[in-house]
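With this grant's support, the team has encoded backbone shapes as discrete tokens. A representative record is reproduced below.
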Amino acid sequence: MRTAILFFFAATISFAQWGGWNGGGAGGGKSLNEYKKVSVSGRDIHVYAPSNLAPKSPLLLSLHGMDQDPNYQQSNTHWETVADSAGFVVVYPRGATGMSTWDIQGDKDTKWIVQIIDQMVKDYDIDTKRVYLSGFSMGGMFTYHAMSKIADKIAAFAPCSGPNVYGASKAQRPVPIIHIHGTNDDVLNYSMVENFLKNYRDQFNCPSKAEEQGNYPNDENSGGTMYTWGPCDKGVYIKHLKLPGRGHSPSHADVSDIWNFVKQWTVDGKVGEASTTESSASTPASSADVAKSSSSGVTGPKSSGDVAKSSSSGSHHHHGSSSSITNVTSSGAVSSSGAVGVLSSAGIIASIAQPADPSLHLVSVYKSSDNYIVVANAQGKTITVFNSLGHVVSTTRGLGTQQKVYTGAKGVYIVKVGSRTFKTSL
């Protein structure tokens, strides 16, 4: 094992000297000089907080690789571009154990991470149940190590190109994981990934077969595959994004995928899972729940066939609902006037729940001719797109005009706009 870690150190030194992907300015974000430099227990961290940050917002920590630094990590990832729109605090810590490495066997750095969290509570009143840890290369190794030490402090984990060369740790609890790795990684070879992740899938009793989403959209690498195992124990999921052609480098192209996964979780479980009413839930019902809703008398028809049957009966109500069916215009948009769920054969969608906010009556959601989910009249509202497994695949802030919010693999998608929930398919 000592040989393995020495080889990793040598390979990483070579990479650090000659550089990987040059991401300076990636994403059009800020430089580290525009971050706030803070000392925690005598060690530096760099902090970014949006100007309109709300109390009890999340925190994400992004750890650099060996013989690298916060400047390299930030200039390649630019987490602030996501933090500004999603509203969370970003911290880039600096490794201290020789050559900017991380303690991936002991508890020196895990204790320091807890101190950073405590400092962010004092400085920004962050939500301690929504703290997320991501890291590249040796930072990714530390992310896995932290699962065995401070899983009670971290809601979800996002290691990149960093299976731990010391082997998989025993996690303190089943935790949500998203691991991103390139097939051309010449420092931590891709061949390590499958067996390494299997250790955690076995620990958490995940399904043996993954759901595979091919041609996964990634700004830097085409032809990626997203593997998803779950639900596992405690309802967690393990995801792995395999990127053909990606070498050993952190990338801004990954941060949205990471955020859209980790933000679903608190240390107590999935965000909003305890909600009993759709309109107040942080997460909408899954496609399976939507499909079952017609038998419970909550919402409208569950398929285009049901729509046809309901219209042929001359009724605009379903199971006694007093709300009228949403009207589908000839242009393909949805003009909302009621609260019954409709999925047309063209994939156009209608509202599932009666909106409490009158302005939400104007919201329309539909599929465009070029296979995008489009939302209109959602000024200032949070728009979240979920796939058929209930995983967040996109989140954004609504504009007053039509906006494309997501395109991806064929399947059923749930779109939540404020307190309204819609359903469509691509």
Q: What stands out?
A: The first helix runs from residue 2 to 18. The mean pLDDT is 79. The radius of gyration is 23 Å.
